[in-house]
Amino acid sequence: MGINKRILVIPGDGIGSEVTKWGKKILEKVAENGGHQFQFEEALMGHVAIEATGNPLPDETLDKARSSDAILFGAIGHAKYDNDPTLKVRPEQGLLKIRKELGLFANLRPVKVFDELLSASSIKPEILSGADILFFRELTGDVYFGEKRKAEDESWASDLMIYHQYEVERIARKAFQAAMTRKKKVCSVDKANVLEASRLWRKVVQEVAKDFPEVATEYMFIDNAAMQLIKDPRRFDVVLTGNLFGDILTDEASQISGSMGMLASASVGDRIGFYEPIHGSAHDIAGKGIANPLASILSAALLVDIAFGLKDASDRIIKSVDKVLKQGYRTMDIADKHTDNRFVLGTDAMGEKVVGML
Ligand code: IPM
Ligand code: MN
């Protein structure tokens, strides 16, 4: 029997609208194939919202988000703000606020290498082959949300790195539960040799670990983890870490899947989930029709699985992507010197291929 769901699409900035167009089309195809009713709404966030309303997260967007069953998001940011630190209203504030307002404390970033893309990565194929990591990045705490201060004369500025016990505990539990369905390994990443917040993090994780005796838990410092990740990515199963360390490590880990254009993520917590590529707004290629839509398509796969429990449909989306890659089709970011030029597709042509396959 089909299900009835409301999905809010927030394209955001830059290539956001070009790629979410395809995430949405995939969702429409899932509905068609499975006899489901998905109702779509759209809303503004980020630079486009600032231009239209002066606010990176208008109340209307937040209201629509709260009354939806899941959110498909594109990307946020604009170069104009990056080079001007004096601007007070910034696109990213919209994303941070919606994470906080919706209680999206756990950001899941699965990193898997598609065999076809082994040669697209800057890491040697023999090191990558078989890597399969699930990152749990804490998303509503840490230095991102700690108190921000600066001197009136701007001679100093500070961001407080702070974690509460309950914040660490709730994400640690999710990570261990996920590990139980995988290879039963958790690596918790921190900087406990230096930071007080990390020592608390480690203590809480050690406590939670006691409830999961079957899981092999290891603790690693962030600097070492950054190195191990490209030295031997296969040693990792579930990686559990804080907001800032997780932000950095997962960009690094995108090289394991071939390209930033491939990585999808799910932010979950209290109720409504938020599904988005990990890549940014990429204004340098926006409007050119060459952005890779696969991360948005894979975000749609996470959405139907996690938010709606449609695991089969989710697997079929991933298989469709795999098949299209096996046929040799690539977007520019994942093409390499072996790719025949006739197989290098733009955003829409690639999206079309995957929808057709599904
Ligand atoms: C991400 C992004 C965001 C973050 C930015 C845009 C605020 O880099 O989702 O990884 O740092 O969390
Ligand atoms: Mn990031």
Major beta sheet summary: 10 strands, mixed
Bound molecules: 3-isopropylmalic acid, manganese (II) ion
Number of domains: 2
**Widest sheet: strand order?**
2-1-3-12-11-4-5-10-8-9
At the first level of CATH, what is the class of the largest domain? Alpha Beta
CATH superfamily of the largest domain: Isopropylmalate Dehydrogenase
**Alpha-carbon Rg, integer:** 20 Å
Structural class by helix and strand composition: alpha/beta
Mean pLDDT: 96
Kindly, what is the distance between the CA atoms of the first and last residues, rounded to a whole number of angstroms?
19 Å
- According to CATH, the fold-level topology of the largest domain is Isopropylmalate Dehydrogenase
Coarse morphology: globular
Poorly predicted spans: none
CATH architecture of the largest domain: 3-Layer(aba) Sandwich
Task: Write down how many β-strands occur, each being a DSSP E stretch of 2 or more residues.
Answer: 12
Instruction: Give the % helix.
Output: 40-55%
**Proportion of residues in β-strands:** 15-25%
Number of DSSP helices? 13
What is the N-to-C succession of helices and strands?
Answer: EHEHHEHHEHEEEHEHEHEHEEHHH
